[in-house]
């Protein structure tokens, strides 16, 4: 099995966190997002412990809410000692509604509107990650109007290609996030920021991409950031106390994916940073990381009911499920790999090769191709693994499908954390 928290019970049903997935689907309906809270907590601890052990005091993992965001998650993150990366007022609102402390929020976004800036300042968000000059200017004005000095990090692009999918690669120079170092623009950005009396510049942020399995691309980013930080010290006497290296450690979607040694990567990164600082005589900064996927992806799975099987003679067989790109757009967007299991028939031989398709009016609405299942029948339950990240948050109401419920599992008990949408929810904003 791909993960230790999965099992098969006497009835041949897939279990998650010790709970029968067939019983979960009967109780809460399908499609259903299931999130193993114990696994989320374990993932948080992996980061917390490794960062506490290998990195300077004050170093902290910030959970990236873009990967998963609902009220009930934030008390868990808070209890596990995480900070949080938020990218919109909606994410700020959700985190605060979940009782998360505003000062542990780091506010991202490449186009924060004046309303967003005002809202975040009034909420007392701890740190802004400033993306560009225009934001610097508006943030300076808004902070000044409140007689407040706002902590900020400056987002720079180190020009690293970590060889992940182009669509999820954000560290290269030619992108809409941050200010590039190589072109000299980041140096002007720093000079501008340092001249603003209501902004307290703490250091730099970079994010090189997502689904990265090793420390090496992050070490390359560190080299570039340290050279840059050193140059900024020479130019302005400014010393960065914080280096935020963004998100990106990968997860295993399939058995064939490499395993990721997160503590080992964190240690390698810390060692690399320490050596770089020693060489340059630069004070070792505290480190922030922004893991999203690697905190929640492997804690989540999605349960679907099979509707039918259609074999196109001479081509292939489609198995349709009662969800699809509305609850998981990642295959349609990125041809993302997933492991699909016959949750209600785990003991049977999987000799039926098929494409699992969703129910939207869209030929690209596929969950996965080349899936092996027992000869499927209507009402079978399928589980798609590793859907804890970027499924719930990227879901839509296309075709006016209701979004699924989300159930959290902890210590052998399940509780509803997000209820299923109703038809009334679908028309709630329609006047
Ligand atoms: C700025 C930033 N931080 C953090 C993340 C989270 O990345 P991941 O989910 O790969 O850990 C992303 C998304 O890639 C991001 O753009
Ligand atoms: N949403 C993407 C990753 C983008 C991450 C945000 N920078 C995914 O599902 O993989």
UniProtKB/TrEMBL annotation:
Catalytic residue positions: 361 (proton donor)
Binding site for substrate: 293, 330, 334, 362, 390
Keyword Amino-acid biosynthesis annotated: yes
Keyword terms: Amino-acid biosynthesis, Decarboxylase, Lyase, Lysine biosynthesis, Pyridoxal phosphate
Gene3D superfamilies assigned: Alanine racemase, Lyase, Ornithine Decarboxylase, Chain A, domain 1
Gene Ontology molecular function: diaminopimelate decarboxylase activity; pyridoxal phosphate binding
EC number: 4.1.1.20
CDD domains on file: PLPDE_III_DapDC (cd06828)
Catalytic activity: meso-2,6-diaminopimelate + H(+) = L-lysine + CO2
Residues modified to N6-(pyridoxal phosphate)lysine: 66
GO terms, biological process: lysine biosynthetic process via diaminopimelate
Pathway: Amino-acid biosynthesis; L-lysine biosynthesis via DAP pathway; L-lysine from DL-2,6-diaminopimelate: step 1/1
Membrane-crossing segments per the record: none
Residues of the Orn/DAP/Arg decarboxylase 2 N-terminal domain: 38-297
Binding locations of pyridoxal 5'-phosphate: 248, 290-293, 390
Cofactor: pyridoxal 5'-phosphate
Function (record text): Specifically catalyzes the decarboxylation of meso-diaminopimelate (meso-DAP) to L-lysine.
Subunit structure and binding partners: Homodimer.
Listed name of the protein: Diaminopimelate decarboxylase
